[in-house]
Specification:
Number of helices: 1
Largest sheet: 5 strands, antiparallel
Distance between the termini: 25 Å
Radius of gyration: 10 Å
CATH topology: N-terminal domain of TfIIb
Helix content: 10-25%
Structural class: mainly beta
Number of domains: 1
Strand content: 25-35%
Order of helices and strands: HEEEEE
């Protein structure tokens, strides 16, 4: 089940506070400003900078 539009409208990058793009096929939230990808595990965004992947 994908993340709800309501939740996505409220989520921002923990680093720069910009909106992120949800890549449903990869289960990742992408911050184009910081060039980081945050995992979504069991429909829960993991917004920890230590666990983000560099793009």
């Amino acid at each position: 089940m994908p993340l709800s539009e309501k939740l996505l409208s409220k989520l921002v990058c923990p680093g720069c506070k910009q909106k992120m793009i949800y890549k449903e096929d990869q289960d990742k939230l992408i911050c184009e400003t910081c060039k980081l990808a945050y995992n979504v595990t069991n429909n829960v965004p993991v917004l920890l900078a230590d666990e983000a992947e560099k793009l």
